[in-house]
Design brief:
Helices cover 35% and strands 22% of the residues. It is an alpha/beta fold. Bound molecules: zinc ion. Zinc ion (ZN) binds next to loops.
């Protein structure tokens, strides 16, 4: 999501050994990772249950009492796993979340088997290797390591591995847990997917903390008309009316604005960016609207972080080549800034369209407030960054996509996307072909999350 023009932070080639977990823990996380990838948990055809069960077995073998482990879900093939690592109870727990379903993958579309873990040329390949089984495997491996090391957190650590994040629907594990067993996952805050380390050709630039998400919403525009014979055209034509409405939407832009998260993003970006926009980036961080307009015009990602966007994505209309159209319809896909309501966007679209014969139907989705940028979390993250990758800053981000974090934010559990797994900005393959993660980045992410969670659950 980030577009950083140049690097200010250079790294030596040799990494200190401390960035990698002990060898036994590398073997463990790799083994869990492999097991997860090779269990086919495709969103539509697969099952998450074998993964949940295998993890439960591992945890029991590592000494977790059965009473602290739960496996279950909305239907038998969509099980979730929840495990509680007991702490001193001085503070509310931390929830560590990852989803264990994946986007479908066909063998013929890939250059290697998507449901085998393949280690090749310094990468782990496999469906879910990046989204989101790396984090799932790491949470479990780290929990087992804490146990073995006798770590006594000052609060409970809860790991939840959940079903059906991809595509959502009635079996979504987070929604199901919130509705049926809120007490099992209730927490001070949650760490989840959605924030990555960003690198370029392996060089680390910034470590993201994703604190808010835009709301995905589709609006369907429809124009109905009596129609008739195309040899007898009349001025009132469904296709022309819709086209005119779309033309007005094309020329419209929602106002630019920032909030706590995007202000922090642009402020941090201004510190590490060396490109031509650096002065404007700093001004955006300080709330300068004219600078926001210039920055939005400079880059589609920045534009999307600074305003609600709505764009036509599908068209249909007419029923015969020789008939006046009785229906013309379009889909308008909107990505709404946190804090703006779906209703207010619909009202704006209606005003822009300015034609009462164009109806708007909304397919609602869940919107959620941003999570506050907690000083304790930022401090812990900076500390982990500094010890692993000195000079790499934390950068708070607004995601233009969506995760299960929105359900938790709405339930009053602030949720942050943070993984410390670095992905090259031009190598983002989640949901795509030959999905992969750098072997080194996987193990470094394991160490980063180990450190981060330990800091957050130790008396300060
Ligand atoms: Zn995901």
């Amino acid at each position: 999501m980030l577009r950083l023009i140049s690097l200010s932070v250079l790294f030596g080639l040799a990494l200190p050994a401390a960035t990698l977990p002990p060898e036994a823990d590398q073997r463990l996380s790799r083994e869990i990772f492999k097991e997860m990838i090779e269990a086919k948990s495709g969103f539509t055809t697969g099952s998450t249950t074998p993964i949940a069960e295998a993890v439960a077995q591992r945890l029991k073998a590592a000494g977790f009492p059965a009473s602290d482990i739960f496996v279950g879900g909305a239907i038998p093939r969509k099980a979730n796993l929840v495990v509680r690592y007991r702490g001193a109870g001085a503070r509310k727990p931390i929830l560590l979340l990852a989803h264990i379903d994946v986007v479908e993958a066909k063998r013929e579309d890939w250059s290697l088997d998507p449901f085998q873990l393949t280690e090749k040329d310094g990468y782990f390949y496999g469906r879910g290797s990046s989204d989101d089984k790396a984090q799932a495997a790491i949470w479990i491996a780290n929990l087992i390591r804490y146990k073995r090391e006798g770590f006594k957190p000052d609060r409970d650590l809860i790991v939840a591995l959940t079903a059906d994040e991809e595509g959502g629907g009635p079996y979504n594990g987070v929604e199901w847990l919130l509705k049926n067993h809120r007490d099992w996952i209730d927490a001070d805050f949650c760490l989840n997917e959605g924030g990555n380390g960003e690198s370029e050709n392996g060089k680390k630039i910034a470590n993201e903390l994703m604190a808010s998400e835009k709301t995905y919403t589709d609006f369907r525009l429809e124009v109905h008309n009596a129609g008739g014979h195309s040899s007898l055209p009349v001025p009132d034509n469904a296709i022309y009316r819709l086209a005119a409405a779309l033309g007005r939407i094309a020329k419209f832009a929602f106002p630019v604005k920032t909030d706590e998260v995007t202000e922090a993003y642009f402020t941090q970006l201004a510190k590490i960016d060396k490109g031509p926009n650096v002065a404007d980036l700093a001004k955006v961080g300080a709330g300068d609207r004219a600078a926001m307009e210039r920055i939005a015009a400079a880059n589609p990602s920045w534009n999307s972080m600074l305003r609600t966007t709505c764009v036509a994505t599908q068209l249909e209309g007419g029923h015969a080549k020789n008939a006046l159209p009785q229906l013309a319809a379009a889909n308008i896909n909107c990505r709404i800034l946190p804090g703006e309501s779906v209703q207010s966007v619909q009202d704006t679209l209606q005003k822009v369209i300015a034609d009462s014969q164009v109806s708007i139907k909304v397919e609602p989705d869940v919107s959620a407030p941003p999570s506050p940028l907690r000083p304790d979390l930022l401090k812990a993250m900076d500390r982990a960054n500094d010890s692993l990758w000195p000079g790499v800053p934390t950068i708070p981000v607004l995601s233009t996509g969506a995760t299960d974090g929105r359900f938790l934010r709405n339930a009053g559990i602030p949720t942050y996307g943070v993984r410390g797994i670095f992905i090259d900005r031009n190598d983002y393959r989640a949901h795509g072909r030959d999905e992969r993660v750098r072997v080194q980045s996987f193990y470094e992410g394991q160490t980063f999350l180990y450190d981060l969670v330990k800091t957050l659950s130790s008396a300060q």
